[in-house]
Amino acid sequence: MDRHFRDQAQPIGGIGTFFTNDVFTSEQKAAGIKPLNMVIKLDTVDFGRGPVNVIKLSDEEGKHCGDPQTVENTKREMDIR
Question: How many Cβ atoms are within 10 Å of 42's Cβ, its own excluded?
Fold first, then answer.
């Protein structure tokens, strides 16, 4: 994906646990305060030419996220079955 989109965007692996849970102090951890369990998923992006749908492809068919038509178009364009 990186090679395919390198000239259009800078793909990243994702925004996950470290990004949202790296603010706890050792005192908070010792007090039993648990970090949030959440995932942030993008919906659209705008690179200056109007909004574009964003999707997440998964190894598991039922776990793709985003606009279904955009998922199918992307899978077809990238020859993913």
Answer: 13
How many residues does this entry show for the chain? 81
Which residue type is seen at 19?
F
Q: Is the dihedral of CA 3, 63, 69, 39 positive or negative?
A: negative
Q: What is the pLDDT of residues 28-41, one digit of tens each?
A: 888 888 777 777 77
Residue 18 identity: F
Contact residues for 59 (Cβ-Cβ < 8 A; gap 6+): none
State the Cα–Cα distance between residues 76 and 38, nearest whole angstrom: 30
Give the containing element (helix H, strand E) for 74. helix 68-77
